[in-house]
Design brief:
Largest sheet: 6 strands, parallel
Mean pLDDT: 96
Low-confidence stretches: none
Strand order of the largest sheet: 3-4-2-1-5-6
Structural class: alpha/beta
CATH superfamily: Decaprenyl diphosphate synthase-like
CATH class: Alpha Beta
Helix content: 40-55%
CATH architecture: 3-Layer(aba) Sandwich
Distance between the termini: 21 Å
Strand content: 15-25%
Radius of gyration: 17 Å
Number of helices: 7
């Protein structure tokens, strides 16, 4: 079983389009799927960290209407699930640059972090305003600001995902087969799993299929 599992949650808009629905409803349904997957992962004690790509640095290019709706979905998700995360012993972390985000969403993220900071179960990194290249740059700058020579170890210690280890398994939904600037450093030796299932339809059964696929692979990390 992986220790750190990551998800590129793709296909919300196409899920809605296939059903003749407003694309915004796809994002809403994606939030429901996120909750279900987090709860399923929390039951698997071997999995200690889960990272989810919710809003990238590139997503700012989308229409203001869509961006605002995504923020609304994220805000509602945090408000509705803060207590549930706490009682299920899940630690929530907002991973990314929130400086451009609406203040009420930032406040909701910080409240969830504060409420769950002492939890000892699954750690959930929700990537908001996140880009893999930007993460590496900010980590390197932190090292240089301390007057240290850059090493793999001190770079890792300054990544936004720290103290999570490298990703063991990355799952991307919707049929796209790329990593889209998500946690690039942490993905160096990850196993990749791509499914045509749109994120709103990704459920516990689909998760189990991905985990079974992972257990059948031989991880060699560049060795024999």
């Amino acid at each position: 079983m992986p220790t750190h599992i990551a998800f590129i949650m793709d296909g919300n808009r196409r899920w809605a389009k296939e059903r003749g629905l407003n694309k915004m409803l796809g994002h809403r349904q994606g939030g429901i799927a996120l909750k279900k997957i987090i709860e399923a992962l929390a039951e698997l004690k071997e999995i200690k960290f889960a990272s989810f790509f919710a809003f990238s640095t590139e997503n700012w290019k989308r229409s203001k209407e869509e961006v605002d709706y995504i923020f609304e979905v994220a805000r509602d998700f945090l408000k509705e699930n803060e207590e549930s995360l706490y009682h299920k012993n899940i630690k929530f972390v907002a991973m990314g640059d929130l400086s451009k985000f609406p203040q009420d969403l930032v406040d909701a993220a910080h409240r969830a972090e504060e409420r769950t900071k002492n939890n000892t179960g699954l750690v959930v990194n929700l990537a908001l305003g996140y880009g893999g290249r930007a993460d590496i740059v900010q980590a390197a700058n932190k090292v240089f600001e301390k007057g240290e020579k850059l090493t793999e170890e001190n770079l890792k210690e300054n990544l936004l995902s720290y103290p999570a280890p490298d990703i063991d398994l990355l799952i991307r939904t919707s049929g796209e087969e790329r990593v889209s600037n998500f946690m690039l450093y942490q993905l160096a030796y990850s196993e990749l799993y791509f499914t045509k299932t749109f994120w709103p339809d990704f459920d516990k059964k689909q998760l189990n299929k991905a985990l079974i696929s992972y257990t059948k692979r031989e991880r060699r990390f560049g060795g024999k």
